[in-house]
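Q: Could you fold this chain for me?
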Amino acid sequence: MSVKIAAMPSNRRAQPQAEKRAELISAARDLFVQDGYDPTPMNRIAQKAGVTPNTIYWYFKDKDELLLAVLDALLQEDMAAYDPVSQWPLADQMVWLVGRLRQTSTLMATVHSRIRVSPALNEWHDRFHALVEALLLAQLPGPLPPASRDAEIRIICFAIEGLVSHQIDPVTTRQTCEALAARCLVLAGR
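A: Sure. Below is the predicted structure, expressed as C-alpha cells.
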C-alpha cells in the first residue's frame, strides 16, 4: 500500500520557518507598540502576518514567548545601532538611549507590569538591566570607587527608565543626562 503526501495548496508558497517566524515577530512588534500588549489579541497578530491564529502557536508557545522574541529583536537592533554611539560623550549616549527606548515605551511598561507574573519576562528584564549596566560601566570616565560603583550605575539606569516612562521633555532629558554624566566625572575624580 502506498501513501500519498498531500501537496501544498497552489495558492500558498513554501516558506522557510525562520522567515515566517520573523514575519510573526514583525507583526507582533507593530501591534504591541501601536496598541499595547494586552489589547492586542493573538488572532489580530495572525491576521496582520497573513496566517491563521493556530500558526502562531507552531512558533511560540504563548503570547509572552512572542513578546520575548519581539524584545530580543529590538535589543539586537539597538545594539547594532549603539556601536557608533558608544564613541559619543556619556551624556549624549544617555540621551540617545532615552530616545531609542521611548520609541517602544509601551513595551517597556508591559515588561514592568508582567515581571511579577511571568518568570521568563522577569529573567529577560534582569538580563536587559545587566547589559545596560555593563555598557554604562564600560563608558564611565575612569573607575568609580568600588563601594559606590554598582549603586551609581543603578541610579543612572533608574533615571533613564524614569525619563522614558514619564515622557520628560527633550530639554529636561538632556539636562538630566548631562547631570548624570557630570556626577560620574565627579565620582571618578575628574
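A (continued): Residues 73-187 form one domain.
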